[in-house]
Design brief:
The chain has about 190 residues and is mainly β. The chain contains no helices and 15 strands. The strands form 4 sheets. Strands 3-7-6-5-4 form a 5-stranded antiparallel β-sheet, with no helix packed on it. A 4-stranded antiparallel β-sheet has the order 8-11-13-14, with no helix packed on it. The protein is globular and about 45 Å long.
């Protein structure tokens, strides 16, 4: 069965991305170590300059050639975005903060963090569908098993990995999967 990205309820054109700030930082994924994607950003805590804001992550040199799978708001000021590079076989989870709006009213995003996942045919449980201890937690996104049943399963009880888009630390943080389930918003669709 062809794997699909888990759809999400709220679609919003979030545009922007970031990466680890340390050029020597690497991301471990299973048995493979991926080099960090480096995006030069200037982190000025209370002052955001126009050069620090982006309206489209695909315009950044690091993500040219990627496919945009969309995004979702996790609050009024924070969002997530998913990009994939078929060439590199990597999926990017992006964490953005609303910084300003341009003259047309379009959002401009400050780059907070980026997570790289090996592979492009991943089953992702999107924010807004992930539950922690029975309650939806909009800051969570999960990686679901490869062999899930998208048609007859209403709630996915098994989660391979989970991450929190932490608005306080402004980082993507891996968390334990205990107590985490994911609603299947494709359930019941013929």
């Amino acid at each position: 069965m062809k794997r699909h990205l888990f759809s999400f309820v709220v679609i919003f054109p979030l545009l922007g991305c970031n990466s680890p700030k340390n050029p020597s930082e690497e991301v471990s994924q299973g048995n493979k170590t991926l080099p960090a994607v480096i995006i030069e950003t200037k982190q000025v805590p209370d002052s955001v300059k126009p050069s620090d804001m982006y309206s489209n992550a695909l315009d950044l040199p690091e993500f040219q050639g990627c496919t945009d799978f969309g995004g979702a708001l996790i609050s009024d000021d924070y969002g997530v975005h998913v990009l994939q590079s078929d060439e590199k076989k990597i999926t990017y989870l992006l964490f953005d903060e609303l910084s300003a709006r341009n003259n047309s009213g379009m959002p401009l995003w400050k780059l907070l963090d980026t997570l790289q996942l090996q592979g492009t045919e991943l089953n992702i449980g999107w924010t807004g569908n992930v539950m922690l201890n029975g309650r939806i937690d909009n800051e969570l996104i999960v990686l679901l098993p490869d062999n899930i049943d998208w048609i007859d399963t209403e709630i996915f009880d098994t989660v391979k990995q989970a991450w929190r888009f932490d608005r306080i630390r402004k980082r993507i943080i891996e968390i334990p999967t205990k107590g985490i389930k994911c609603q299947n918003d494709m359930y019941g669709i013929d």
